[in-house]
Design brief:
globular; two-stranded antiparallel ribbon; single chain; 9 strands; seven-stranded mixed beta sheet; alpha+beta; 5 helices
């Protein structure tokens, strides 16, 4: 795998980013202030995964978006991206946060990557999105935050 930091024309990856955050105006809140990483297969020119990480200050970074192309999901690419980001940010941040909806599949994924529950932001999805967000047949309401201590990776 080849993971690249993208510094210009980040919106060209919007179709991929929308897989993880389906409202463009929400992506606009963090895309330019964050670092965008895109994973490519070494034999292909097509992006297969993308992630955006922001510096939230005081040694805390946040994984704002993690998306894997539909045809490549459940093949380990998301985990590879998370592992790469944890290594990359270990010298910059002591904690990596990630917020997600109340989807058992997504929560299980982050827990399997070593994240632990941090806190909940009540009504995040209902207050910040202009339409109901449905995942795994459930309308999302609260944002569930998980954290990972990156100092353990040093």
């Amino acid at each position: 795998m080849n993971i690249q930091l993208i510094t210009t024309d980040k919106k060209r990856f919007l179709p991929l980013l929308l897989l993880a955050d389906e409202q463009e105006s929400m992506i606009d809140r963090y895309l330019e202030r964050g670092e965008l990483f895109v994973m490519y297969d070494t034999q292909e020119t097509e992006a297969i995964a993308a992630a955006v990480v922001t510096d939230e200050g005081n040694g805390v970074c946040e994984l704002k978006n993690l998306a894997v192309a539909s045809s490549r999901q459940r093949k380990g690419y998301g985990r590879q991206m998370v592992e790469y980001l944890c290594r990359r940010y270990a010298d910059v941040c002591h904690t990596l946060l990630v917020g997600t909806g109340e989807s058992r599949q997504t929560i299980t994924f982050y827990e399997s990557c070593g994240f632990t529950y941090s806190h909940t932001v009540a009504n995040f999805f209902t207050c910040n999105y202009d339409h109901p967000i449905v995942e795994d047949g459930k309308v999302l309401k609260d944002m569930i935050y998980f954290q990972k201590n990156l100092t353990l990776n040093r």
